[in-house]
Design goal:
321 residues, three-stranded mixed sheet
Length: 321
């Protein structure tokens, strides 16, 4: 079919224009930081170190293989396989990127301090704060790269998965693409219904990066004092509690004063990670408002600043000799 202009595709494009601008601005800031600051030199080296680690390739391959396997595996969800596929894909990308950031923080910060390698860097005209902040940005960049690689594969596969499930359930699948007129020529453009389903994943991936960035800052702060095993265990506990704080606050036991006080303490001190979890909303086709993404970005930036400041304090008087 020839369409003058896919109105639905145009609406999708305008809906995510600001999201694209925000992501582009973040990438531009990271590039400027990497090449124009002393801490950026450490960030570049940390990112290269993280990418060269076997764990980066293993986690990236695992995420891609698992998402690819879920493309064909039936979920027996009575026609809702695409929703289950999206939910599982987002969870896979979140877990793999978190594992990468926590592992790299332990290897790049804790091991360098224990192995006295940090003394070599700090003997140069680099302060302790530049060292910590450069390490954090470098680890976050490596996690962002994993999310971009696995997320791009995930979005493309979702585009095809929607039609594949329609066909498997005996329904008429939408066209793979449609033809539209552009500059007097007919050119293929993505089919609007497929594009809508796959494009809704982008805000969720953005929120996943915010959650990973927050946990990376926490992991770097812990790594300035604790070894790898303690860092991993502590981050796992914070991750679990951070997702359970809304349940703890609204629990039926909230009427008990000690439980209510403890729940409020956790909700205040620990990051509210559940606010970044929009996988259920995306899987059910609910649009994530840009205002919500903006508020989440502000919250993550504030918590990252607090965690990095704590890392500065913990590392300031750390004996490296």
């Amino acid at each position: 079919a020839v369409l003058p202009l896919a109105a639905e595709a145009t609406d999708i494009g305008s809906r995510y224009t600001w999201l694209g601008i925000g992501i582009s601005a973040l990438l531009a800031l990271l590039l400027l930081f990497d090449y124009l600051t002393r801490a950026g030199t450490i960030a570049r080296a940390t990112t290269k170190e993280a990418i060269r680690q076997p764990v980066f390739l293993l986690l990236s391959a695992f995420a891609i293989l698992l998402i690819g396997a879920n493309y064909y595996v039936p979920f027996f969800s009575l026609g809702e396989d695409t929703k289950m596929f999206v939910d599982c894909g987002l969870a896979t990308i979140l877990i793999t990127s978190l594992l990468l950031s926590i592992w790299t923080a332990s290897m790049s910060v804790a091991d360098e301090i224990e192995g006295k390698t940090a003394m070599t860097l700090l003997s140069k005209p680099i302060t302790r704060r530049q060292f910590v902040f450069g390490k954090y940005v470098g680890i976050a960049q490596a996690a962002l790269l994993l999310i971009i690689v696995a997320g791009s594969f995930f979005v493309v596969l979702t585009y095809f998965k929607f039609g594949y499930d329609r066909k498997e359930s005996g329904q008429q699948p939408p066209d793979l693409y449609v033809m539209t007129e552009l500059a007097g020529r007919e050119v293929p453009v993505p089919e609007a219904e497929r594009l809508t389903v796959s494009a809704k994943i982008l805000p969720a991936l953005t929120l996943i990066f915010m959650e990973v960035a927050v946990m990376t800052a926490v992991s770097v702060a812990i790594s300035t004092r604790l070894p790898m095993l303690m860092n991993i265990v502590t981050c796992f506990a914070i991750f679990v509690i951070g997702h359970l704080t809304p349940v703890l606050v609204e629990s039926t036991f909230a009427g008990i004063a000690p439980v209510q006080l403890l729940a409020q303490f956790f909700a205040t001190v620990l990051p509210s990670l559940e606010s970044f979890n929009m996988s259920a909303a995306v899987a059910t086709g609910i649009d994530i408002p840009l205002s919500y993404i903006g508020l989440s970005a502000a919250y993550s930036a504030a918590y990252i600043a607090a965690a990095v400041l704590l890392a500065f304090i913990l590392f300031e008087d750390r004996d490296l000799a």
